[in-house]
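Re: beginner question about structure tokens

> Can someone show what the tokenized structure looks like for a real chain? I only ever see the sequence side.

Sure, here's an example I had lying around. Input first:
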Amino acid sequence: MKKLFELEVAGNLEHLARISAFIADSLRKLEVEDNTLYDLQMAVEEACTKIITRGYVEQAGKIWITVRRKGRNILVSIADEGTPVDPTAVLSPEIELELDEEVRSGGGSSFITTLVDAVNYEQKGGKNVLTLVKQTEKRHTFGLEMTERLIILSIIGVFALLMLLSLTGLAPFRIANDDLENARNILEGVGVEGLSAIFAIVISLTLMAVQFASQQYTHRIMDLHIKSITFWSVVLIYLGSLLYNVFMLGTLAEPVNSSVIEISMLLTALCFVMLVPYFFITMLRLRPEYVISNLLTRIDAHYLGTIKGLLREGETRIPGDADKLLPVTEIIEKSIGNGDRGTARFGLGEIYKSYMADLRKETETYTTPYFLGHFLGIGREAIIEADDDTMVQVLEIFGKVGTRAIVQKLDFTTKMVLENIDLIGFKVMKDYDVATQQMFDSLQDMLRELITLDAGNEEPMDRIFTLYQDAADELYTLKKYRMVKYMVKSLGALFELMTEKGHGEAIDRTAGVLENIGIFGVNLDIRDVIHQAIHLLHRMGAASAKSNLVWQTPKGELRIAERIIDHLLKIEGETLKYKSKSKEFDVIINEIEYARKDIEQYLKKDVDFSDLWS
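And the corresponding structure tokens:
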């Protein structure tokens, strides 16, 4: 088997699909599990996107990718000649023992490190080399179905061989004699009565467990259990053993053939031995994680093609009996209701991986509404059940999908993501601060990519800033002033990137949000928010003046620094209305005047700007 795969492509966004296909093809040839494959696929896409959008901004270049296996680890190395970016070291000590010396230098980035076990960075031969390390399953590479078949067939094979030896008289030992009374007792007491009682108990207990799991999660658990080879093997072996013993009991006569009794005893032993894998595998099948993984394997390219056909016919929703993702969302929603956050988190993560594996330009018109519709339903259920952990995860997934959509220019997906953030985000503001923060984090991630790429698509940026404006209004109405401060901080975190990219539109729209926040703060006398907004406007105005930043609009050229002064003056005008109430408003007016004059100085002459960042 080939263990090393290599790819060389030009460093541009158009080749991301080719890179993703190469990773999937290579890992399948290395017999990597699907979960590991999806994680590495997303991690490589994220890494290559950063290389293209940040490392190759000033120059064109290539990306070299190698995929190889070392022990239980899969190593994916990504090399480029762009601007070096040295991530923070993140390396698992137990994995380090198995790695080559050349990949131990350490490195990582926030999203990528959630997908892999180690991210290692170094500069070698004039190239930046990022190595992603993912550990494969420790136990075996077979799925449960394959393991199940091997165990069942092995057990049956061993007992079949023993029976054959007994019938042919080649067995090296005897386990029965030819006594008629003893033979009758074995066939009747153990072979018929004993097996009948045990079989009834086993089936009853199993059905109770399956029914309970079905009520807790989904009735599809019953379907999976009924289709299990272990279930039918136990049923057939027990029924076959009972029929054999009944038949032999009815025909029993002297002289007794000891082989008949030995076969009965071997069948009884087989029935008991089969109970061990039967109960073990049944318990595994009843786990919601297994059910989720099994159900998601049915959502493949062929099935999504049928979804495409339904949407073409004007359907807005997939009928329940045709929706293969519905049982998975049912499990997640019931897990939320039961307080089983682990299952809910696992299920959401698996749906996200499945979605990302199929999201492309040519598929987004039907995969996006299908998957995002289910995420939206889960988010609403989390709000009903007050599960803030799931709310956060849903909003985090929206942010990841939106970021990828912006990078790959999936405009339809970007629009739907922002609509869903609006629907869920504004429902959580009243009672769930952590989820509200995640909404702003997701918007920040999407805005960062828009600024970085500067693709000229105004619609998503306009929608993001509208959400910021509406969120500020809603938070003030709810008296969530701490969340208003968090939102200002979120916008401020992108300030340096806006300035670096010379993105006049983003700075001007940010200033508009800050003006709105400042005026609200004045009206409600929330002074720390007012100071925070003015301080950020001051920094933005000075940086824009120094860079002589302009925004080319259809109506003409706008100087950003002058626009920011206008925003400051509007806050000042509102403050003057309340000047008589408190001396604190005099402080605010003085702060605004200082900021305005400072910005005007930068407009007039080139002043040392280094102290502004301190």
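Each token stands for a local structural state, so reading them left to right follows the chain. The two ends are 57 Å apart (CA to CA).
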